[in-house]
C-alpha cells in the first residue's frame, strides 16, 4: 500500500520569499512521485515528477523537488514566490509498474502575501 | 495542446436523482481514470480503464455508481440514485502507455446534491 503525507494544510509566504511545501511518502516498492497544482474549480496540472534517474527534478513555473529516499521525502520548493503561485498543491505517489493509479495527499493551500 | 474534455462543468441535482458525467480523453490515450475529490481532500480513484476494460474499480460504490468506456475512447460515469454525500468534484484523467506515467486531468465536474 502507498500513502502520502503533506505537512501543513495551509502555508503562507511573502511575495519574493522561498516556497517550501513538504511531502513524505510511504511505499513498499520504488515509487514514482508527482506534484500537481490546482486552481479554484479547475483540474490538476502537473508541476513535476520523479520516476528514475536524477533526484533533483525541475518543473514548470520555477518549481523543483528533490527525491530523498533515506528520508522518504519529496519536498517542493521555489526560490521566489509570485502572486500567481497561490493555489492548492498536491503530492502524489504511484508504483513503478506503469499506468498505476495515483495516491494523493490531502493538499497544501499556498497563500502569497503581497 | 491536446486536453481532456469533461462535461458538464457543474451539475446541481436533488438526492435520489440520476446524474451522468462524460469524459473525452486525449486522443490515443489508452488509460482513463475517474477520481472523486471531496472538498478539502485529495482526489481518490474510483475506476481505471485500460482501453475498454476495467482495471481497478475496487473503490467504486457499485450499488449506485457505474462507469463504462464502450469503444475504448470516451467514458461515462453515472450515479443512481445520488446521495448528499456524493457532492464532490469528479475528475477524469488519461494517460498514454509510453511509460511516462503522466496523467493528464480534465477540468472536472462539480456535483452538488441537494
Task: Set down the secondary structure blueprint.
The complex is a heterodimer of chains A (114) and B (114).
Chain A: E1 3-5, E2 10-14, E3 19-21, E4 24-26, E5 31-38, E6 44-50, E7 56-58, E8 64-68, E9 73-78, E10 87-95, E11 103-104, E12 108-113
Parallel strand pairs in A: 2-12
Antiparallel strand pairs in A: 1-4, 3-9, 5-6, 5-10, 7-8, 8-9, 10-11, 10-12
Chain B: E1 5-7, E2 10-13, E3 19-24, E4 31-37, E5 44-50, E6 53-56, E7 65-68, E8 75-79, E9 88-95, E10 104-105, E11 109-113
Parallel strand pairs in B: 2-11
Antiparallel strand pairs in B: 1-3, 3-8, 4-5, 4-9, 5-6, 7-8, 9-10, 9-11
Structure description:
- The complex is a heterodimer of chains A (114) and B (114).
- By secondary structure, chain A is mostly beta strands.
- In chain A, 0% of the residues lie in helices and 53% in strands.
- Chain A has strands spanning 3-5, 10-14, 19-21, 24-26, 31-38, 44-50, 56-58, 64-68, 73-78, 87-95, 103-104, 108-113.
- In chain A, strands 2, 5, 6, 10, 11 and 12 form a six-stranded mixed beta sheet that branches. In chain A, strands 3-9-8-7 form a four-stranded antiparallel beta sheet, with no helix packed on it. Chain A has a two-stranded antiparallel sheet with strand order 1-4.
- The mean pLDDT of chain A is 93.
- Chain B is mostly beta strands and 114 residues long.
- Chain B starts with a strand and ends with a strand.
- Chains A and B meet through strand 6 and strand 10 of A and strand 4, strand 5, strand 9 and strand 10 of B.
Amino acid at each position: 500500500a502507498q500513502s502520502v503525507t503533506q505537512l501543513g494544510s495551509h502555508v503562507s509566504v511573502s511575495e519574493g520569499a522561498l516556497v517550501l511545501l513538504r511531502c513524505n511518502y510511504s511505499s513498499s516498492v520504488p515509487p514514482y512521485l508527482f506534484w500537481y497544482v490546482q486552481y479554484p474549480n479547475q483540474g490538476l496540472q502537473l508541476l513535476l515528477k520523479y520516476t528514475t534517474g536524477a533526484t533533483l527534478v525541475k518543473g514548470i513555473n520555477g518549481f523543483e523537488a528533490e527525491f530523498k529516499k533515506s528520508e522518504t521525502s519529496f519536498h517542493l520548493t521555489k526560490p521566489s514566490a509570485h502572486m500567481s503561485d497561490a493555489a492548492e498543491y498536491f503530492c502524489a505517489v504511484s508504483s513503478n509498474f506503469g499506468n498505476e493509479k495515483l495516491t494523493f495527499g490531502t493538499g497544501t493551500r499556498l497563500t502569497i502575501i503581497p | 495542446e491536446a486536453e481532456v474534455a469533461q462535461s458538464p462543468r457543474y451539475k446541481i441535482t436533488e438526492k435520489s436523482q440520476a446524474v451522468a458525467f462524460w469524459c473525452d480523453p486525449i486522443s490515443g490515450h489508452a488509460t482513463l481514470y475517474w477520481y472523486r475529490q471531496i472538498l478539502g481532500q485529495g482526489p481518490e480513484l474510483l475506476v481505471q480503464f485500460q482501453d475498454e476494460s476495467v482495471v481497478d474499480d475496487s473503490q467504486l460504490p457499485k450499488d449506485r455508481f457505474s462507469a463504462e468506456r464502450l469503444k475504448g475512447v470516451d467514458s461515462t460515469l453515472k450515479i443512481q440514485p445520488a446521495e448528499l454525500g456524493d457532492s464532490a468534484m469528479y475528475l477524469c484523467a488519461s494517460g498514454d502507455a509510453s511509460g511516462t506515467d503522466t496523467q493528464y486531468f480534465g477540468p472536472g465536474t462539480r456535483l452538488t446534491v441537494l
